[in-house]
Specification:
Length: about 625
Amino acid sequence: MPHTGSGDYSVHLQRLGLDPETLKLTSRGGIAAPAARTDADALPRVSVSTSAEERSELTVLKTLGTGGMGEVMLATQRALGREVALKRLSPHTPRDATNELLREALITGRLEHPNIVPVHMLAVSQEGEPFFVMKRIEGIPWRKLLRDPVALQRLSREKAEPLVLHLDIFLAVCDAVAFAHSRGVLHRDLKPDNVMVGAFGEVYVLDWGIAVGLTRDSGLPAATEVTAVTGTPAYMAPEMAAADGKALGVQTDVFLLGATLHELLIGRPPHAGDSPLDTLEQAWKWAGPPADARVPEGLGDVLARAMARAPKDRFASVDELRGAVVQYLRHRDAVGLAAEAKARAEALSALLGATGPADDAKVHAAFSEARFGYAQALRIWPGYETAVRGRDEVTTAMLRYELRCERPAAARALLPQLSSPDAALEAEVAALEAQLTERQTRLAALEKSIDLDHALAQRGLTALIQGIGIALFIVAMGFFGRRGWFTFGHREAVAGLVVFGLLQVLLVDRSLRPKLNEVGLRAMNANMVGNAGLIAFWAAAWAVDAPFHTTVVLFMLFIAVGWGTVATLFDARTTGVPIAYAIGTALVIVWPAAMFELFGATTIAAFLSLGYAWRRSKQKPAQTRSARS
């Protein structure tokens, strides 16, 4: 295998017995192969002239092109009345190049393929100069088309991007080279200069002059016997620059095709030195193509494999390389969709990374667009790693956003969209679900503890019974007093309130307290404090010997104010109580003689309104549910 270090390339050539000073480039940028001996004397002699008046088999009309060792002329073949291309040595070419010209003719003539120019004749002129006759090709060198997109579009019958058109040409070149390999021929000088594109899109691979045989029985010099540096330095494979014939094989032409693809994509050959020797040294030390932003996604791996340093790391055949490019063309739309999806994903990332709260609608819109783009790419190209990776990244970002927003259901719905299970994300979702469940439980308990409607029916019924009992007691005291059976004064009122308070604690509180929540217990405690306040009020009135009627009026007013405070601050449903006592107070002031009856009626009215309001509000949700069902 070629040297992999940074040693002097000239030393390497000298070890091979080669003189670096003799490595001169031809006019087409190549280094010619040593001439192989071919017997020109055995070729037929055909007359060639430059005048149509002379009776010659071939009449040269004009020069079509020159390069390297030869020149190509436009000629007329008299016997068939057709125009052909005649290739011969240039006037100033050394005569020892004759064998190279003849070898090119023999190799090209052996390879009958639509992408290889047919050879019609191999002969010598009447002066003994060798030449061969080929099909005349009307077209443009691929090199020119690489520099002239307008000319490329004129040749194309399809409206396609220049890259696609060039890749179509590249595939045709691959077809020709693969055919040559099947016939045991290794080209060794593949480059855009050696490809011609015809007026109707025909593609021809030219200049087979330095081709060698892949096997010893190919009729050509065997590749394994190569001991000279031959080819075009700007495109050479490392084994070619090292003159390592044993390493030459079909992967050498694969490298040259990769080097051609390199120029197609990046705009220049892979090797470019200040001198032929510098360029050869770059080829000798080649370590693989560096990453380049100009190479479209999907072709970077193809280029890297085709131009791998070691032949064993390259595509095993030209057909494999061709197949990889065909796959790229087939999946090109998927690559474009993935690129658009990536732009949407970057917009999503910017939204999620911005300071302050993210715009939820914009976040979901960007995520939906990115995910849709990747999904469309994968529909065209299932298993497209870039799209799979991009979809996973955008889904993970969105999943974490949903977790941050405490939406575990939305986050869990995204988990199956990942290409493979993610235990860490699954654990995060489960942890949030548990946290929110715990929080909901605590909130439910808190709501229950402060629910004013809790045990409302029991509280309403108790209030109603208490109200009726108190009212009956007050009316009875008034009735007994009028009959002279019992005098009800301050002392009796205090005694009655104490008895009422004891019954409240022993009977009502004991049975109702276990059913109450926190707010209910506070209300009951407040009620007990209120009862104590009422006892204290009557005791104070007794102590100062206040008029009984005045005490009753103040007592009812005290109750009205207390319940009014409750209605204003805590429970508006109790508004009926202060209203009833306010009206009752006014009536007692107007009709003092009926104060017991009015006090009792007021109490019944107040507690009836309380029980009705609580019970009605408790029934409303049930009625609503029934109506909806």
